[in-house]
Automatic annotation (TrEMBL):
InterPro entries the record matches: AAA_14 (IPR041682), DUF4143 (IPR025420), P-loop_NTPase (IPR027417)
UniProt name for this protein: ATP-binding protein
GO MF terms, alphabetically ordered: ATP binding
Domain AAA, first and last residues per copy: 18-153
Species, as recorded: Ruminococcus bromii
Length: 431
């Protein structure tokens, strides 16, 4: 399946400033598969090492971590001759071997001719919670996410549609009505299936939502196992409580995260470590409120006011045990959840595109779902789950801050009026 990150990996390979690459991201987003495919396509051979399936590898790094010592031994273990420039060296689940991570410093300094990519599902957790000697400044770092809706559409055989969507986004010209309806159907399918590559592959082959849900449940179970395996003993229960409660809070009219909703009397001091663990693992992301619309936005975030979204819309629906038909037909019974689910979807698309997202509230309660910086402009984004695009809050914001333009994401077709760019939800990947 087509993954956009391949373009980044090709540029990394050709860069004269290339360093060992750390590819991080949540479990099951396709890190290992993508790296191995990249290696097979662009190198003569791949030397692959997995610290989870082969824990005895740790002993090799315990003895010596200089490249001159490691390369002959790793060649023998992998059964391939590691040749500089021609072999891709892959360290998988590197969070399980601190010394292997430290060795990247010496590869960068003393043997930059070797091409190394390391992957880790819980690398953020390991680095922040252990005594890791992180090779600061000696590595390139890239975060990998689930497939976005454009990659999903391409996997479904609709590459031509994605090209038409991009043209309409740039020109603000509506898509033909029949194609708009098809794209909205694909959008709803994406909400159910999500962007986990194995789920997308299953759906592309079978169109069976039951099989997809089984796979999603397996991924969710692995996340729960990780919370036990890679967490402090006294934090396990709190982390699970917080994670289970995120989907509940997305069903509220006000989706701002509230500790008291995790449990009666819940406070930040009790659950902030659990929230941090979920963030570092890549399972969720926090979106902070900004108190002022000024650059840089990060300087004006309110650390006590934030929303939490999960990393994949399909896993969100699976966690809520919503049937495929509930989403495909947007039944009235899920009305309370539609807003939070749609916001979650948009945040995923914006995050994959590299945007740091925030939200804004006025003193009188007007709220803008997302604030991003696009090029040199601060852009407000209003999100609606249906085609009702009346947005009083957006009017308040525009009158107060006079942005270059605003974006309204909804079920409506493309358009542009009164400095408001109307974008259908399926085109969020264009932003």
């Amino acid at each position: 399946m087509y993954r956009k990150i391949m373009e980044y990996l090709k540029k990394w390979k050709e860069s004269k400033y290339r360093k060992p690459l750390i590819l991080q991201g949540a479990r099951q987003v396709g890190k290992t598969y993508t790296v191995l495919e990249f290696g097979r396509e662009y190198y003569e051979n791949v030397a692959y090492f997995n610290f989870e399936t082969n824990p005895s590898l740790n002993k090799t790094f315990d003895e010596n971590i200089t490249p001159d010592y490691l390369i002959p031994i790793l060649s023998h273990i992998a059964g391939v001759t590691i040749v500089s420039e021609k072999t891709l060296i892959v360290f998988d689940e590197i969070q399980l071997c601190e010394r292997a991570l430290t060795s990247l410093k010496y590869f960068c300094e003393n043997a930059p001719q070797y091409h190394i990519i390391v992957a880790g599902s819980l690398l953020g957790v390991a680095v922040n919670r252990s005594t890791f000697s992180f090779p600061v400044g000696k590595v390139d770092i890239k975060t990998m996410y689930p497939m976005d809706i454009e990659e999903f559409m391409i996997a479904m055989g609709n590459k031509d549609l994605t090209e038409m969507i991009r043209k309409s986004f740039e020109s603000n010209a509506p898509m033909p009505a029949a194609l708009h309806d098809i794209c909205m159907q694909l959008y709803r399918q994406y909400l159910v299936v999500g962007g986990m590559p194995e789920c997308v592959s299953l759906f592309a082959q079978t169109k069976d939502y039951v099989l997809v849900r089984h796979n999603q449940d397996t991924i969710l179970a692995s996340y729960l196992n990780d919370m036990s395996k890679y967490n402090n003993l006294n934090e396990i229960k709190k982390t699970r409580l917080a994670y289970d409660n995120i989907t509940v809070q997305l069903s509220k009219k006000n989706t701002r995260f509230q500790y008291k909703l995790i449990k009666k009397g819940g406070r930040a001091s009790e659950f902030e470590n659990a929230i941090e663990w979920l963030n570092l693992s890549g399972i969720v992301s926090q979106v902070y409120k900004v108190e002022q619309i000024k650059k840089p936005l990060e300087n004006y975030r309110d650390i006590d006011s934030f929303k939490i979204y999960v990393s994949d819309s399909g896993l969100l629906c699976a966690k809520k045990s919503l049937s495929a038909n509930d989403i495909l037909y947007m039944v009235d019974e899920i009305n309370e959840f539609k807003g939070g689910m749609t916001e979650n979807y948009v945040n995923v698309q914006l995050t994959i595109n590299g945007h740091k997202t925030y939200y804004w509230e006025s003193d009188r309660g007007a709220e803008i779902d997302f604030i991003i910086q696009r090029a040199s402009d601060i852009i407000p984004i209003e999100v609606k789950s249906a085609d009702n695009t009346k947005a009083k809050s957006l009017g308040v914001y525009m009158k107060k801050f006079n942005p270059k333009y605003a974006i309204k994401l909804s079920a409506k077709n493309f358009g542009y009026e009164d400095n408001k760019k109307t974008v259908p939800l399926y085109a969020a990947f264009c932003i």
